[in-house]
Amino acid sequence: MASIDLGNVLDKAWADKSVSEVLSAPVSALKGVSDRQGDLLNEAFGIKTVADLAKLKYVGWAQALAELDAAK
Fold first, then answer.
1. CB atoms within 10 A of CB 27
2. Taking the model in full, what pTM does it have?
3. Exposure b/e, 30-69, CB count within 10 A at least 16 = b
4. Burial of 25 by CB count in 10 Å (0-12 exposed, 13-18 middle, 19+ buried)?
C-alpha cells in the first residue's frame, strides 16, 4: 500500500483531513495549486475536486508514458 506525507502535498488547511475529505476537496487543496489554476482546470477539463484530477484520463496516459520511459 502506498504511503504519503500529506503535509508535503496538501495546503496546511487540508493536511489534517481524512483522505476522503481531501478527495472531495477542490484541487487548490494540493500544495502549489492556486484557486485560479483550479478554475482553469475546471474550465479546461471539468475538474472540480482532487478525485476528479486523479481520474483524468490524460493524467493516467502521461503517467503510463513516463513509466514506459523509466523502464527502458
1. 22
2. 0.87
3. beebeeeebeebeeeeebbbbebbeeeeeeeeeeeeeeee
4. buried
Closest C-alpha to 36, from 49, 25, 27, 45: 27
SS3 content of the chain, % helix, strand, coil (to 5): 65, 5, 30
Domain boundaries, the chain: 6-70
Q: What is the pLDDT of residues 9-64, one digit of tens each?
A: 999 999 999 999 999 999 999 999 999 999 999 999 999 999 999 999 999 999 99
Q: Quote the cell numbers at residue 51.
A: 478525485
Residue pair 57/47 in contact (Cβ under 8 Å)? The answer is no
